[in-house]
Every structure is written in C-alpha cells, then in structure tokens.
Amino acid sequence: MADEKIPDSTQAPGTQMQVPIDADEMQTAYTNFFRVTGTFEELVLDFGLHTQMMTASGPEAVHLSQRLVMSFYTAKRLLNALQWAVSRHENNFGVLETDPQKRLRPGLRPSAPGSVNVSGPQ
Question: Which parts of this chain are annotated as the region Disordered (predicted)?
Fold first, then answer.
C-alpha cells in the first residue's frame, strides 16, 4: 500500500482541496431533450436532439446521443449546481419560462379550433 495517499492532517476541517481537471478528451454535444430513468442505486440521464420535424408517418423520432449514469449523491450535487447556475442566470436576465405556449408573444399564439384571434390583424 505504498501508493496509497495519507490524508493531510494539517488541512483545516471543512476546507476543500483543488483537484486537477484534464479536459483533453472532452466532447461537446447539444441537447434539447432529456429522459430520466434509473434504479434504486443509480440515476440514468439520456440526452438527445428533438428536431420537432413532422414526417408523413408522424413526428420524427428523438435521436438520443449521450447517456450519463451517476449515483444519487452525484445527482444531488449536480442538481444543486444546476439550481445555482439557473438562479444566477435568472437574476441577471429574467425568469425563464419553461412552457413554450407562455413564451409566445401575444398575437402569435396559435388559436384553438373554432376560436377567433382578436389580438392580431384582421
């Protein structure tokens, strides 16, 4: 066990050690779709691209391209980091509306069948 590192007892309790990060082989992917599944031990996050294209047979399938599997401890730390990042963004730029229908400007909302759009030009 000569390779085993012994904790530094001189470090104050509660302080964090900086861990080096190697991003040489990191890949970037865009996602606008996710699916969450898992087991009692792990959380599984699938990411992909939803083009929202309609084909003759119906909507085009979502193309899943990435899967992350993590413990629930890691998932909770990720949740906290994402909450912090989104909160910071909203404080700087305004609240993010996740309902696409509420994001549409008045007059551009699709009308329900049989209803009259009174806000747009006639």
Answer: 97-122
